[in-house]
TrEMBL record:
Chain ranges passing through the membrane: 27-45, 57-78, 90-108
Identification of the protein by name: VanZ like family protein
Keyword entries, A-Z: Membrane, Transmembrane, Transmembrane helix
Recorded superkingdom: Bacteria
UniProt-listed NCBIfam families: vanZ_1
Taxonomy of the source species: Bacteria, Pseudomonadati, Bacteroidota, Flavobacteriia, Flavobacteriales
Organism, as annotated: Maribacter dokdonensis
Length: 115
């Protein structure tokens, strides 16, 4: 709800950063969505015992994050006057969600080696 509100709320009166880093907003989108997937999985994994169901759960979380990111960008374009939907933001969101999935897979889905 926090992300939705601030994605659609006008921030025209708020000062911007002193630093002008090109495409920094894409890095922020990427980071938020990768963290969303990781935290979503960590919050929900204790409810699922079987590894196969955890894998399916992870895919649902990624699908939700990607869909949510696209919907937010469309709503920014349609509902707001001083914000605009950016396809590159949606792409950064989606890539972040998939990277979050790969992080979870690396941390929790590896099979132990037989050394």
């Amino acid at each position: 709800m926090f992300v939705t509100f601030f994605s659609l709320f006008s921030l025209s009166g708020v000062g911007t950063s002193r630093f002008n880093i090109p495409h920094m907003d894409k890095a922020v989108h990427f980071t938020f969505y990768s963290v969303m997937v990781v935290l979503g999985y960590l919050a929900m994994r204790s409810k699922t015992v079987q590894q196969a169901k955890r894998s399916k759960l992870l895919w649902y979380i990624v699908l939700f994050a990607v869909t949510y990111g696209i919907i937010i960008e469309v709503l920014q374009h349609v509902l707001t006057t001083d914000r605009h939907g950016d396809p590159l933001d949606a792409l950064a969101n989606s890539i972040g969600a998939f990277v979050g999935m790969f992080v979870i897979r690396f941390l929790f889905f590896r099979t132990p080696s037989l050394k």
